[in-house]
Amino acid sequence: MPDSLATYHKKRSFNKTPEPRGKVHKRAANIKPTFVIQKHDATRLHYDFRLEIDGVLKSWAVPKGPSLNPDDKRLAVRTEDHPIEYGGFEGVIPQGQYGGGTVLLWDRGTFENVGALEPLDAERKGHLKFRLHGKKLRGVFSLIRMGRDEKNWLLVKGDDEFASRKTDLTKSKPKSVKTGHTLDQVSRSHKVWQSRPRSQSRA
Ligand code: MN
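# manganese (II) ion complex -> structure
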């Protein structure tokens, strides 16, 4: 069976990045699958949208972040599968490493599939529909692939009671759901950590 995390592992040097190595965790059907959104200030700022499917976090990079407006179609570019452990990651990926820059845990929670197919089949077919139970994002969203073999998908809010044409949560709720920190604070706390005296870092 192919290892769906092979690409994730190949792109990273785990002695140089604080990101978790992780592994595939197939979980019992009665455990609610998780989702996570990480704000990632890399070469270009984007939001990484991740859904737990088949033991890994299927991932999309959303340049503009999620919108609550059902009229918005947000580009979501499929990226490599990440381990479920990545869902707890917040910190700084060193410059020169893959994805170098600050990662802030913007939202997390669980999701329910509300599409006709099982999530793994729906992902292969290029049409996922799910209800999010996050700290910031709630309600139905769809991820729709634009072409047969394309990496480009669209993230669209369903028109339910959580939809809004006025609120932009990326602006009104910018802080981490893990630490309450802003992107600058996450970067700064990392610099403090990096500048510890050598004796302390060896302890
Ligand atoms: Mn990213």
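# post-check
Residues 31 and 110 are 10 Å apart (CA to CA).
Residues 6-201 form one domain.
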